[in-house]
Amino acid sequence: MILTLLSALAEPTRLAAIRLLADGDEHCVCELMQVLNATQSRMSRHMRTLKQAGLVVDRRDAQWVRYRLKPDLPQNIARVLDAVLDVETEQKRAAA
User: What is the per-residue pLDDT for 72?
Assistant: First the structure.
C-alpha cells in the first residue's frame, strides 16, 4: 500500500492535483485540467491513479467528474500525505 501511495505521489502532475485537493473542496476534472495545463485524457488517467492509490474519491455531476481527498484516510496514510506536502512546501520556500 505504501509503495502504491508513494508512486502515485511521485509524479509532479498528480502531486500538484493532490495539493489543489488539499483545500478540502471538490474540484472537477475541467478545473484541474486548466490549473495544471493537462489534457482531459491525461488528467483523467492521473486521477484514476490517485483513486486506485486510495487518496481521492470521485462523484459524477452530470457530465463532470468531481474529485476530493478521501475523507476517511487511514491515519498512517494521512500522515505520509501531510509529510509529502510539507516537504514540497519547504522545498519551494528554500528555492525562493
Answer: 93
The string over 17-50, giving b where at least 16 C-beta atoms fall within 10 Å of a residue's C-beta and e elsewhere, is bbebbeeeebbbbebbbeebebeeeebeebbebb
- Joined grid coordinates for residue 40: 482531459
The cell numbers describing 28, all together, are 472537477
The per-type count for the chain, helices as H runs and strands as E runs, is: 5, 3
Bridge partners, residue 69, by sequence: 56
Q: What is the pTM of this model?
A: 0.89
Nearest to 58 by CA among 24, 37, 85, 29: 29
Task: Name residue, grid cell 473542496.
Answer: 25
